[in-house]
Amino acid sequence: MTDRLHGGTPLAEQIIAGHLTGDEGPVAPGRLVTVRPDRVYVQDGNAPTIARLYEQHGFTKVFDPERVSFVFDHSVLVADVDMADRMKEADRFAARLGVDVRARGQGISHVLAAEVGWFSPGALVLGSDSHTCVGGAFGALGLGMGASDIVAAMVTGTTWLRVPETVEVRFTGTPARATRPRDVLLTLLRDKGQEPFLYRSVEFTGEWARALSGDASASLASLGVELGAKCVFVPDEQGAIPTGTAAGLTRVDFDISGLQPTVALPHLPARTVPLDEAAGTVISYVFVGSCTNSRLEDIAEAAAVVRGHRVRPGVQFVVTPGSNAVYRDALRAGYIDTLMTAGAVVTPAGCGACVGTQGPLPARGENVLSTMNRNFRGRMGNPEADIYLSSPVVAAATALSGVIPRVEDLP
Q: Which residues form the Aconitase/3-isopropylmalate dehydratase large subunit alpha/beta/alpha domain (predicted)?
C-alpha cells in the first residue's frame, strides 16, 4: 500500500473518499454515497443474466470499454449443453459491447485482477462475484455485487453504497507450523460468528498478519465474505497497517497461539473443527484450487507433500491452477510434473470444480476434501456429496492416504 493510504482513517473510508462523484461532504460510516469505480469485471456464470438485463432496459454500451472486463473462469471445460449455450451467449454479449475479454483458460477473475494490476493500492473495483473481496490483499477496495448493480455500474460508470463501519481484527500469537491462513479465518468465523463483521470493513492486523506472503494474504482475504464482511484488508509485505489505533475503531482481539490445522465439516464453513477431530474420515475425491488456494504457493505446498509418493488407488486428486501464469510458473518449478507423477489430474486454469458448472463432479455419497471457500450442499454440482474443506497441505496428505490425517501425520 502506498503512503497516501496510511494514517488514522479506516482504509475503506479513504478509498471511498477518493472515488466520490462530487462534493458529498465527509465520508462517514452509514452514509450513502455515489462513487466511480476504477474497474468493473463480470464472470461468465452471470454474464447471460447481465445480458438479459441489458436487453430489457435497452442498454447497448458500457461507460468505458477499457475499464469493463469479462472473465471466463467458472466454466472453462463445459460438459453440459445448456451451460455451453450460456457461455456462447456470454461470448456474443461481450463482443457486442467491445469490452476487455479474458478467455477460458486464462484464470480466475480475482487471481487475474491481481496479476494485471486491477487490484492496486487505493483502487475501487467491482466484480460480479462475491469473492472480489480478494482485492483487500493488495490494498484495493474489492466489492462483489449482484447483476443489477453491476449493470448500473457498467452503463453509468458509477455505483452507490453505504459506507461500512470498520472493525480491526488483531491477531496475537503464532499458530502451529502446519496451520495456514484459511485455518485461522475459518476458526475466527467459528468462534466469533458473522455478527461482528456483517457489512463491515475488516482490517486484519498483528505480527502474524504482517508476516504473510502475498499468496497467503490473498487466501486470507478471499474468505472475508464468509465472515459476512463488506470488504477486508490485509497488511502489505512491508507490514503497513492501514488504521493502527484510529479513534473509535472497533477491535476484535483473536489469539491464534498454537492454533492447529482445521477441517470444515459439511455443509458450512463455520462448522470448522481442529484437524484431529476429523481425522480418519474416508475421502475419495480431493480438489486443490479455487480463488482461495490456487496460487503458486498453494501448488508448491501440495507438490512438496506428494513428492516421491503416489495418490492412493481409488482417490481422485484434481489440481486446478488459479491462472495461466501460475500454471506456467508451476511448470517451470517442476511442481506440475511432481503432482502428475504422483497421480494428480492437473486441469487448465480457472475455477475448476469449485462451483459445479464443470467437472469433475463428485459422485452420489462421495466424501470430498477441497481447498475452496465454501462447502454448501450442492456446491460442487451434486447435493448428495459431502464436502469438507482444508488447506492444500492437508488436502495433498489426504490424497496419499485416502483419509483425513492427524496433525502428527502431516509432513
A: 15-236, 279-402
Residue 223, CA atoms < 13 Å, CB-side half-sphere:
30
pTM passes above 0.90: yes
- What is the grid cell recorded at 214? 502475498
**How many alpha carbons lie under 13 Å from residue 365 in its C-beta half-sphere?**
0
Range of the domain at 61: 13-162
**Tell me: the pLDDT tens digits for 76-100?**
998 889 999 999 999 999 999 999 9
Dist. CA 354–CA 288, nearest whole Å? 9
Which residues are 124's β-sheet partners? 141
The string over 116-129, giving b where at least 16 C-beta atoms fall within 10 Å of a residue's C-beta and e elsewhere, is bebbbbbbbbbbbb
Residue 150, burial from CB neighbour count under 10 angstroms (0-12, 13-18, 19+): buried
Contacts with 85 (C-beta within 8 Å, 6 or more apart), sequence order:
none
- 232 and 361 share a domain? no
Query: Is 255 within 8 Å of 230 (Cβ atoms)?
Result: no
- Whether residues 104 and 18 fall in one domain: yes
Does residue 225 register a pLDDT over 60?
yes
Sheet of strand 124-127, all strands in order from the earlier edge strand to the far edge: 100-102, 68-71, 39-43, 124-127, 141-144
Using left for φ > 0, alpha for ψ between -120 and 50, and beta otherwise, residue 248 falls in: left
- Which amino acid is residue 359, in one-letter code? G
For CA atoms 366, 369, 372, 377, the dihedral sign is positive
1: in domain: no
Are 323 and 355 part of one and the same domain? Answer: yes
DSSP H stretches of helix in 80-164? 81-97, 109-115, 147-156
Asked if 215 contacts 180 with a C-beta cutoff of 8 angstroms, the reply is no
User: Does residue 2 sit within a domain?
Assistant: no
Residue 282 near residue 373 (C-beta atoms within 8 A): no
Residues 6 or more apart whose CB falls under 8 angstroms from that of 155 comprise 59, 61, 62, 63
130 vs 242, more confident: 130
Write the pLDDT tens digit of every residue in 124-136. Answer: 999 999 999 999 9
On the question of pLDDT at 7 being above 60, the answer is no
- Nearest CA-CA partner of 278 in 265, 288, 287, 259: 265
Q: Between 337 and 243, whose confidence is greater?
A: 337
Q: Beta 68-71 vs 32-35: how paired, if at all? A: unpaired
